[in-house]
Amino acid sequence: MNASVRSVLPVKIAPPTGSLPSREMPSAASMRMTVSKVNFFYGAKQTLFDISLGVAASKVTALIGPSGCGKSTLLRTFNRMDETVRHTRLEGDILLDGHDIHEQDVTQLRRRIGMVFQRPNPFPKSIFDNVAYGLRINGSKLALSDAVEKSLRHAALWDEVKDHLHKSAYELSGGQQQRLCIARALAVEPEVLLLDEPCSALDPISTAKIEELLVQLKDLCTIVIVTHNMQQAARVSDFTAFLLTGQLIEFSPTPYLFTTPSDPRTEAYITGRFG
Amino acid sequence: MNRRLRWRKFVSNFMLSMTGVCAFVAVSVLFFILGSLVYHGGTSINWNFFTKLPSPVGETGGGMANAIVGSAKLLLLATLFGVPIGFLGAVYLAEFSGSKVAFVVRYAADLLNGAPSIVIGIFAFSIAVHPFKHFSTLAGGFALGVMMVPITLRSTEQFLLDVPRTLREGAMALGASKWKTIATVIVPAAYRGILTAILLAFARVAGETAPLIFTALGNSYWSHGWNEPTASLPVMIWNYSISAYEDWHRQAWAAGLVLLILILVINIMARAILSRGISVPR
Predict the structure, then answer these.
(1) Which of A82, B20, B205, B219 is the most exposed place for a label (fewest CB within 10 A)?
(2) Arithmetic mean of pLDDT, B200-206
(3) How many distinct helices (H) and strands (E) make up chain A?
(4) What is the pLDDT of residues B214-240, one digit of tens each?
(5) Sign of the CA dihedral running B239, B243, B248, B253
(6) What are the residue ranges spanned by the domains of chain B?
(7) CB atoms within 10 A of CB A45
């Protein structure tokens, strides 16, 4: 292991047992999503270049890279949120369980691929109504209060809010609000959960809670997380993709990427030489 | 202290006193108006004012019951006409239109907002009175409604645009269609601002006189239905205050006070609405 890497990463990375960590990627069959040759344009400016990667089912995949590298843009193409911004254009294919996401109804797609944003964005409604929102607009026949409790439990928030479900969501702390947003996304039982720097507005304790949560949520759904925090990627993810100026530099199992990066630019980034 | 410093101190004090005096003048004009309205109106107002019809010329007493009911009918019509157009137009501008269309509509709304109310009156006359050959409550409500459109439209649009983009994204990411996002998240997040805007538009047209002279005209008796001319408080004030009778002047003051209190109550309601409920933090 590179000595400089070890010195800047005060992180428990799954220790390479015996030999080097496996650099083997999962087979194509175990992929929940497949991204192939994606190019993305804001007006005339291209921000993603020929990106191809797979998102393994029931695993956490992290997208890392310096500000402006396109990691959030890439994430937003997964549930077609990029289409909410005018003057953008996407080339290439993104498949969910083998089907092109651009051929599906966008509202249906977004029910299957949930998203949590950089800053907590609860609706100006009660805690209960926030979590029930997705179920209500989808005309779900499930018993609302059971579903809300289940989602809040999955988001590790139930014990903190169960006695005041009808209070405004804005009375919660930032970290609680973000877990509420996770609960809100989980309520519609998505197959994939996208998280766009979910901890960047939170304190370390709230961050730790959310990281712990993500590892547990793997059983429930496939997770893709964008983060500028390398330690976070190392702690929570199984696979890590490193992006730089809109290009995918390296995509490997997380322990491998952080200990024996194959590209010198990856090593420069994770050792803190830039970004 | 040298001369330069003294001069600076003098200028500073002079400007400070000037701004203070101007602020005082501005407020005192308002208080003078309020004071004289309360003084004259308060001494003239009585129960008959609210329950009796205007008395014939030469007799004292009587009231403005027909004008109070007339004003209520006119404002109801104006709200039914102006608010839906202004509100839905604002939803289109804030959520759907391109920036060019929005610019043109906004500009037109601002022009309409600035148009003298007498011009709106003539417009309503040519559309809603002239073709039917008679003045009517409907025409008056239409004229006031036209005035409510731009105020409702512009402020509603602003309140919708103020809803953070993150909330829209949150709803859309849960699979809400654009219409559902608007109906279940954006409008609820902005509704207090919108309601306030509507109330203020209502208060604004409640005191309008010129558009009604051409449309609802006014009379001294009960107006039946919606197709007849009707009395209204502002027109009543106008007619009574230019008359030669002391008793009518007295009643005009009373009507002025009633209008003022109505507008004051609406303003207080608007403030109360704005300050309660769950608001979106900035």
Answers:
(1) B20
(2) 90
(3) 11, 10
(4) 888 888 888 888 888 899 999 999 999
(5) positive
(6) 3-43, 50-274
(7) 10
Percent helix, strand and coil across chain B, each rounded to 5? 75, 0, 25
Q: Which of A134, A168, A185 sits opposite B278 (nearest CB)?
A: A168
pLDDT(A61) > 90: yes
- The single-letter DSSP state of residue B185 is I
Structure token digits, residue B266: 């609406």
Q: What is the mean pLDDT of residues A187-193?
A: 94
Could you tell me the CATH number of the domain that includes residue A62? 3.40.50.300
Q: Which of A224, A212, A159 is nearest to A185 (CA)?
A: A224
Tokens representing B184 are 């279940």
pLDDT grade, residue A106 (50/70/90)? very high
Q: pLDDT for A196-232, tens place per residue?
A: 999 988 889 889 989 999 999 988 899 999 998 889 9
- Mean pLDDT value of segment B247-269: 89
β-partners of residue A88 are A42
> Is A168 inside any structural domain?
no
Which tokens hold the place of B251?
């009643």
Name the interface residues of A facing B (CB cutoff 8 Å).
79, 81, 84, 107-111, 114-115, 117, 119, 121-126, 133-134, 136-138, 168-170, 181, 184-185, 188
What mean pLDDT comes out for the span B77-98? 93
A242: amino acid identity, one letter: F
* Pairing mode of beta strands A31-42, A45-56: antiparallel
Question: What SS3 class is residue A208?
Answer: helix
Task: For residue A90, give its domain range.
Answer: 3-11+33-120+190-270
User: Is A40:A90 a contact under the CB 8 Å cutoff?
Assistant: yes
Name the CATH architecture for the domain at B50-274: Orthogonal Bundle (1.10)
- Asked if residue A179 is part of any domain, the answer here is no
Classify strands A192-196 and A222-226 as parallel, antiparallel or unpaired: parallel
Please check the confidence at residue A17 and state whether its pLDDT lies above 80: no
Q: ipTM surpassing 0.90, yes or no?
A: no
- Kindly state whether residue A134 falls inside one of the protein's structural domains: no
Residue A199 pLDDT: 92
Split into its structural domains, chain A has a count of 1
Query: What's the mean per-residue pLDDT of chain B?
Result: 90
Contact B174 A117 (CB under 8 A): no
Q: Is residue A245 part of a domain?
A: yes
